[in-house]
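Our collaborator T.R. sent over the components below with a one-line note: 'Predict the complex.' Nothing else. No constraints on interfaces, no templates requested, no preferences about which chain binds where. So this is a plain run: every listed entity goes in together, and whatever single assembly comes back becomes the starting point for the next discussion.
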Amino acid sequence: MYLLNKPLITNLWSKVVDGENEKQLTRVTVESTGPYKYMLKEVSGGFLLECFGVEINMPEGRLEVNDGLLQDISIEQAGNDAARVELFLDHPAECVHVLYNDFPCRLVLNLNRAFINSLLSAKKIVVDPGHGGKDFGGRGQVSLLEKDVVIPIANNLERNLKKAGAEVLLTRRTDKDVPLDERAALATSANADAFISIHTNASADRSEVGAATLYSPHDNGSKELAMYIQKEVIKKLRVKDRGSTVQQVLGCLGKEIPAVEVEVVTITNIVEEVFLRGLTIQERAAEGITNGLIKYFACGGPSAKGDKK
Ligand SMILES: [Zn+2]
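Returned assembly:
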């Protein structure tokens, strides 16, 4: 007879969902065995949900989200019959809450992602699957070819960026050979705000692992863009951080367009080859790149681009 007892908070999760008019929301759901009193406050860096007359019946602590808006959530018991749920945000957002008094009872917090849309809505991003056709790129020890993973990752990235409001141009949609100068020309003629080439690392040393993000030698925001993307990709993939360095061939994009090459993992390592075959990594790599782009545009991408030499 749970109804006679204190309600218990049993579950907590977060998901990016399509709201009204196809506007995306970050939706946090707090599930409990019954209703309770609560107060939602805007605090510096996010929101604080104070819950009264309730007990936590799930692991306490931090839950990492990293969806581009919501960094993480913490949940903790605050005294005998109160709980605190904190939402830590990367960017400002409005929060609307609704309590569904069913069983289980669900308190739903909808955070709007309008800020992200405002950052990306006027942006043109060229997404370049780095290989196709005869040019298959790296090859794994089992049989996986680089071209067979960079195209699905690029497709996921295109979908994420379009949902966030950006205009996206792909340098190839199918498994065909397109020379780099043609792919670069597409970005130049479109006057793109960023060029993102997707690759995997390949090494003669089969024990080498990890992800890296390389950048154009021009001082035009490419290095900053690479730093943001690398950091966010590592958060999502949890692989070894091989850092960032200059990639001379990206210089062909010119001084106008920040350009990076993301090596999502190392295809020549057998563990990472197996990892690469999974749809999860293909999704998560695209999420990491999207989050890096959002941070870049939020933290000075346009000003860096304006600072041309
Ligand atoms: Zn490659």
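Summary for T.R.: The domain at 2-112 is CATH 2.60.40.3500 (Immunoglobulin-like).
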